[in-house]
Design goal:
There is one protein chain. This protein is α+β, with helices and mostly antiparallel strands. It has three domains: 132 residues, Beta Barrel (OB fold (Dihydrolipoamide Acetyltransferase, E2P)), CATH 2.40.50.140; 257 residues, BirA Bifunctional Protein, domain 2 (2-Layer Sandwich); 42 residues, no CATH class. It contains 15 helices and 18 strands. The radius of gyration is 29 Å and the shape is elongated.
Length: 509
């Protein structure tokens, strides 16, 4: 068998030790090991232990992180998910031959099970006096240098398993992520929301303005799209009579990758019958502030040098007012052509193609306002042109009842009073189709079945989507989305000739 593939990182000395242990009849990968205690459990139960070893023997297991060889004794640091503990291994305390096996074949990174008795060293450290050990996994790859850990960012993302082994900060980030997901579920189910699962592969994508990933189903003989949002399917459930629904969804958008965007991302979408966008704003505020309090112990988070206060109630303002007061320009006082010229001088992308002041408003907002919204702020009342699924505003002509939540310059949530007029929805889809015809690759597709669903009647409904990855970023003070996604999307390290021959068509994205 060849181990010379550059993708393999086996260490030659470790391979040699593996072979030696096998020749000695040592089982390298036994099927199980019975633990009587976790390491944290040992520390708790034997917190009052003295210098004399406890008469009670315990069994625990974990990975060896540090090995200190003192000739006829070893001191090691053993770690499991709950913590670390020091091991004291003496030649005369182990069964015959075991010390030689440890000395010649066991090293940093290996996983072992031990039986021993707790005692406290002269410097006060709880330690296990090892009576016996069993090699459970022989590691063939070497861990990073123990004092500096894994510092190469690209390697940390590509080999997340290694990052988790050596970086406690990363493990804590993903513990927090797990707690946030649990809190989301618990909070919503306590409010009588039901969790559902909707299709990830869809014949028509919708629910957001984004480019999809495409694939082809051989049996069905049709193109399918990876979901960009679960919105239209969840609203079909509301039509069907479920009045409070949510989904923790993986979404996929064929877009750029940066510190706040990943092509595969997580969000929770929530819909409530007989509610509007103001109800969903309150729900969003309660859910997020409650999660921050639960995972951090308070309402304040330090993020990129700013102290962000999540204490309710949060600020809110219409988009037009935000552009005027924060961006410093009242766009509705300019003639359209003059506004386009002004936008160019301010670096507003895409402004030259707008057909109205309302179309220009979100572009000026993104350029002049968005990154300045550090404290939790709801931006309200979006132009109808870029909100094809939201209900028309009850007071402002040309606008819809929509909000977006911004924190630390990032959009964290997006909610509407949901459009439930099938004729209006049909016209909005037709307007989106026209945008697609003119080259807008992010415009939404025409979903006739969804319009039919609305034709059977959907009650007044409020909806909101909350970005889970960005919420974890804020909760853990991480400034890159790659730090909070276990296995983020990465450009492949090398390309083979065979891979280069594949044409970059839409069906092999």
């Amino acid at each position: 068998m060849s181990y010379d593939n550059p993708a393999l990182q086996f260490d030659e000395q470790r391979l040699a030790k593996r072979n030696l242990l096998q020749e000695q009849g040592v089982t390298l990968y036994p099927p199980s090991f019975h633990r009587s205690h976790t390491i944290a459990g040992i520390r708790t139960e034997f917190d009052s232990v003295t210098h004399d070893p406890s008469p009670q023997q315990v069994a625990t297991a974990g990975r060896i992180y540090i090995v200190r060889d003192h000739g006829k004794t070893f001191f090691c640091d053993l770690g499991d998910e709950s913590g670390r503990i020091q091991l004291y291994i003496r030649k005369d305390s182990l069964p015959d031959g075991k010390f030689a096996i440890f000395k010649s074949g066991v090293e940093r990174g290996d996983i072992i099970g031990v039986k021993g008795r707790a005692f406290r060293t002269k410097v006060g450290e709880i330690t296990l006096w090892v009576d016996d050990f069993e090699l459970l996994t022989k590691a063939l790859c070497s861990l990073p240098e123990k004092f500096h850990g894994l510092t190469n960012l690209e390697k940390r993302y590509r080999q997340r398993y290694l990052d988790l082994i050596v970086n406690e900060e990363s493990r804590e980030t993903f513990r927090t992520r797990s707690r946030i997901l649990s809190q989301l579920r618990n909070n919503l189910t306590a409010r009588d929301f039901l969790e559902f699962e909707t299709p990830t592969l869809q014949p028509i994508y919708g629910g957001a303005n984004a480019r999809p990933f495409t694939t082809y189903h051989n049996y069905l003989e049709q193109k399918l799209y990876m979901r960009i949002a679960p919105e239209l399917y969840l609203k079909r459930l509301v039509v069907g009579g479920f009045e409070k629904v949510f989904e923790l969804a993986k979404n996929f958008r064929n877009e750029d990758i940066d510190t706040s965007h990943n092509p595969e991302f997580s969000m929770v979408e929530i819909y409530q019958a007989y509610a509007d966008y103001k109800d969903m704003m309150r729900l969003t505020e309660e859910i997020i502030s409650g999660i921050i309090r639960e995972v951090t112990g308070g309402y304040e988070v330090t993020y990129e040098g700013n102290t962000i206060d999540f204490t309710p109630p949060w600020n809110s303002m219409p988009m037009e007012e935000a552009v005027k007061t924060i961006g410093g320009i009242d766009i509705f006082t300019y003639p359209l052509e003059a506004l386009k010229e002004k936008g160019k001088t301010l670096g507003v992308e895409g402004v030259e193609g707008v057909r109205s002041h309302r179309e220009a408003l979100p572009l000026f907002f993104e350029t002049l306002v968005e990154e300045k919204l550090i404290q939790p702020t709801f931006i309200l009342d979006f132009p109808i042109e870029n909100s094809p699924l939201a209900k028309v505003h009850r007071e402002k002509e040309g606008f819809v009842e929509r909000f977006e939540l911004f924190i630390a310059g990032m959009e964290l949530a997006n909610g509407f009073s949901e459009l439930n007029d099938p004729i209006d929805q049909l016209e909005r889809f037709e307007a989106q189709e026209e945008k697609r015809r003119l080259g807008d690759e992010e415009a939404q597709m025409h979903d006739y079945d969804f319009v039919n669903a609305l034709g059977y009647g959907m009650p007044p409904t409020g909806g909101v989507g909350i970005g889970i990855d960005r919420l974890v970023m804020l909760s853990t003070s991480n400034t890159s989305i790659k730090e909070v996604i276990l296995f983020p999307s990465m450009r492949r390290e090398s390309t083979t000739e065979e891979e280069e021959e594949v044409a970059p068509g839409e069906d092999n994205q």
